[in-house]
Amino acid sequence: MPTFSYFQTLQGLRKEIKSNFDLFTKKNDIQKAPAKDEIPPTWPDDVRAFYDEMDGATIDWRHFNHEEQPFVSGRMRLLSAADVIRTGKGVIWSDSTPKDDVLRKFRLIDFFVDEAACGFYEEGNGEMHLYHFEATPIPLGVNFEGYVKLMCMARGFFYWQEAIISINTGKSSQEAEDLKTYMPKIFPDFHYADLVKLLEEVKL
To answer: Which of 25, 26, 85, 183 would staple 190 via disulfide (CB 3.0–4.6 Å)?
Structure first.
C-alpha cells in the first residue's frame, strides 16, 4: 500500500480551491519544506510524519454567493511545528491549571477559528479532539492522518468537525445540517454519504 502523502493531498485541495472561480480565497498557502524544529518523540507517529513532509498549511475560502452567510466557508490552519510546541500556556492552560491536568499535554494543530481548534494529547493514542476553549476536548475517533483525509473531503467547511461528531453520536447539529445543505451546491462532487463512508474507513 502506498504511503499517504500529506503534501500531495493538501496540494490537491489547494489547487482545487484556487481553480474554483466562485470562491474568494483569503489565504491558500502550504509550507512544503519539512519542519526545522525537532519534533517531540511524544507526538503521534502520523503527526511526526506530517512534519517530516511539510510544516503547516492554511486554506481559507469564502463563496461569492454567500458573503452574508459567513458560515458558508472553509478554513483550515495547520500550525507549524514550532507553533504547536509553543501554543499551550496562555491559550489552553495557565499557571492556575493543576500540574496533573491532562490539558497541559494537549497540543493544538488545526487552529481553524479563533474560538476553537483541534489537537491531540502528547503520550496519548493519537486521537484527534475538537476543543472549544474552556470546555473539555471532544474525541473525534480518528488519528491525524484520518483527520486530514476527512478535512480535505469536507474542504475544511466551517466546523466540519461537528458533522463528524454528529455521525459518531447519531445526534444532529446545525453545523452538520449546513454542511449537508451547502457543500453539494459549492462542490457538486461532494456527497455526505461519502464522508460517512470515509469516516468508517479511518476510524480508530
So the answer is: 183
> Which pairs with CB-CB distance under 8 Å and at least 24 residues apart come from 84-87?
84/108, 84/109, 85/37, 85/40, 87/111
| 180-187 contacts, C-beta under 8 A, 24 or more apart | 182/66, 182/72, 182/157, 183/154, 183/155, 183/157, 186/20, 186/22, 186/23, 186/63, 186/72, 186/155, 187/155
DSSP codes of every residue in 81-118: HHHHHH-EEEEEE-TTS-TT-GGGGEEEEEEEETTEEE
Number of CB atoms found within 10 A of residue 78's CB: 28
pLDDT of amino acid 96: 84
For residue 66 the three cell numbers come to 454567500
What's the pLDDT at 93? Answer: 85
Q: pLDDT digits over 86-131, tens only? A: 988 888 888 888 888 899 999 999 999 999 999 999 998 999 999 9
The answer to whether residues 50 and 132 touch, using CB atoms and an 8 Å cutoff, is no
Question: Residues 6 or more apart from 165 whose CB is under 8 A from it?
Answer: 130, 138, 140, 171, 173
User: 178: Cβ–Cβ under 8 A, 6 or more apart, which residues?
Assistant: 71, 72, 157, 158, 159
d(CA 144, CA 6) in angstroms, rounded, equals 10
Cell 476543543 belongs to 131
